[in-house]
Amino acid sequence: MKLSHFSSPLTSTTTILIIFFTILTLLHHKASGATCHPDDEAGLLDFKSGIKSDPSGILKTWIRGTDCCNWNGVQCDYERKRVQSLTVSGQPEENPNSILSGTISPTLAKLQHLSGIYLSNLNVTGPFPAFLSKIPTLQYIYIENNMLSGQIPESIGNMTQLDAFSLAGNRFTGPIPSSISKLTHLTQLKLGDNFLTGKIPESLNKLVNLTFLSLKGNKLEGPISDIFSPFTNLRSLELSRNKFTGNIPNSISTLAPKLTYLMLGHNSLSGKIPDFLGKFRKLDTLELSWNKFSGIVPASFKNLTKIFNLDLSNNMLVDPFPEMKVKGIESLDLSNNKFHLGKIPQWVFSSPIIFSLKLANCGIKMRLEDFKPSETYFYDFIDLSGNEITGSAIGLLNSTEYLVGFWASGNKLKFDLGGLKLGKRFKYLDLSRNEVYGKVPLSVVELEKLNLSYNHLCGEIPKNNFQASAFVGNDCLCGSPLQPCKRT
């Protein structure tokens, strides 16, 4: 260091001493952190020994004698020199063949200062690792999207210190153990996408600190337990894709002040949609599709001004549909009810952020040219099948650069197909049973899914990989996969 000529000898000496002690401290820290606690190292290496395949090398840095606090996925409390959390996560969407697989070694219980274990998107097999109850500091268990199986043991009730517990995306069977009700500190409980059976235990109403409850994608049945009154902090409730029957329980009405996500779709719920849902002023997502709801949609729905995702499809709902006052809907699906909307609602037109619009079989009678959304840029999916829509789809489809799919079968659309200019993201097109004419352009046959059957198309079909069902019922199409064209 170059010292200023204005510095006194005392200042220079002090500076040198500071540098000396800083270096000494760093060297001491490095030396003392060269290896982690023997129990932590042994527990982690035994865990590694239970992993039979690690093709992407997630655990390649786990080498005996090196500082385990520097290993991939390991985080330490450096004051205690103990392992605090373990995170091992795969990325199957990038390379499905690179997923780590094996079992969870019980010697992982040696990590006596572990507060969180996060094992996600792996092929870890075996039963629930009950030995985790021997770790007194464990607060967070996220073992998600693996292949654990068997029943969730009643002994889970001994882990009363848990703050979050997720076994979502495994293969667990049997009932939800009633002992979970002893985990009164839980803020998150996620048991979705397993094979759990039986009813929701009444005792779950003791989990008064829950902010997130997900039991979706199981085989739970019977009426939804009327247990929700104590859940004053709940923000997300996911019960979709089960076998629930009966009405929506009244105690759900007590969740109105804070609930943002309510997902009850793909069950066998019946009766009328309760009026109290219109009081959920913070509701972001409401999903009631594929049930047996009947009657009208409550007029109170006009109060859901913050709703972004609304799915009421595949029920038996009837007119009139309330005039919503939504400031910006992102996803709307009213398909396959008994609605006679007449036209696409104005509050849908005005949304600047909508990406998914599905109004199949909604009794819409209008010219498609009259559908002039304030913004088409964000549209990903549009389904207007089974209505009485006339006119041309050219203007709409050619102005939606990010559109992925357009379904409009069973309408009265009439335009020249050759005028289509599809964006790079476009993959799915169904214009079957309309009055579309002209030739089949090359851009159309390069899609992933296509149905142009029963229109008035003519001419030779460009080379494609589709079945004949994609082109049958037209006036004079020829070429593979239909009959060969006649050469003059």
Automatic annotation (TrEMBL):
<dbReference type="InterPro" id="IPR032675">
    <property type="entry name" value="LRR_dom_sf"/>
</dbReference>
<dbReference type="InterPro" id="IPR051848">
    <property type="entry name" value="PGIP"/>
</dbReference>
<protein>
    <recommendedName>
        <fullName>Leucine-rich repeat-containing N-terminal plant-type domain-containing protein</fullName>
    </recommendedName>
</protein>
<keyword id="KW-1133">Transmembrane helix</keyword>
<feature type="domain" description="Leucine-rich repeat-containing N-terminal plant-type">
    <location>
        <begin position="37"/>
        <end position="77"/>
    </location>
</feature>
<dbReference type="Pfam" id="PF23598">
    <property type="entry name" value="LRR_14"/>
</dbReference>
<dbReference type="InterPro" id="IPR003591">
    <property type="entry name" value="Leu-rich_rpt_typical-subtyp"/>
</dbReference>
<feature type="signal peptide">
    <location>
        <begin position="1"/>
        <end position="33"/>
    </location>
</feature>
<comment type="similarity">
    <text>Belongs to the polygalacturonase-inhibiting protein family.</text>
</comment>
<keyword id="KW-0677">Repeat</keyword>
<feature type="domain" description="Disease resistance R13L4/SHOC-2-like LRR">
    <location>
        <begin position="108"/>
        <end position="335"/>
    </location>
</feature>
<dbReference type="Pfam" id="PF08263">
    <property type="entry name" value="LRRNT_2"/>
</dbReference>
<dbReference type="InterPro" id="IPR055414">
    <property type="entry name" value="LRR_R13L4/SHOC2-like"/>
</dbReference>
<dbReference type="Pfam" id="PF00560">
    <property type="entry name" value="LRR_1"/>
</dbReference>
<keyword id="KW-0732">Signal</keyword>
<dbReference type="InterPro" id="IPR013210">
    <property type="entry name" value="LRR_N_plant-typ"/>
</dbReference>
<keyword id="KW-0472">Membrane</keyword>
<keyword id="KW-0812">Transmembrane</keyword>
<dbReference type="InterPro" id="IPR001611">
    <property type="entry name" value="Leu-rich_rpt"/>
</dbReference>
<keyword id="KW-0433">Leucine-rich repeat</keyword>
<dbReference type="GO" id="GO:0016020">
    <property type="term" value="C:membrane"/>
</dbReference>
